[in-house]
Structure of DUF4870 domain-containing protein:
Amino acid sequence: MQAPRFAPDRSSTGIDSKIVGLLCYLGFFITGLLFLALEKRSTFVKFHAMQSILLSVFFCVINIVLGFLPFIGWFLGLLLAPLSFILWIALMLLALQGRWFKVPIIGDFAEQQAAKF
């Protein structure tokens, strides 16, 4: 886990940026897209919105691929579901604490892409 780089900046939505960071994960990619489109100022919110979108796409692709594998895909899907749920809850709590936790690989890419918005 990484320490916060700096305190979350103020959100242009008028809601506390920590709350918006949590909300980015709450509705999977939908709220991520919503807050990425609405947010003009907060890099904290943009980062969590982008990470939420990329993580949603990643899990969707993995589930599609596992769906094509006869028995092992079903078994791995059963293992992946609770792990992804735990990760999602952890990311919501970390965002609520104001932490800039980056999921390996996806987090770095999310940070780069969020800087472009």
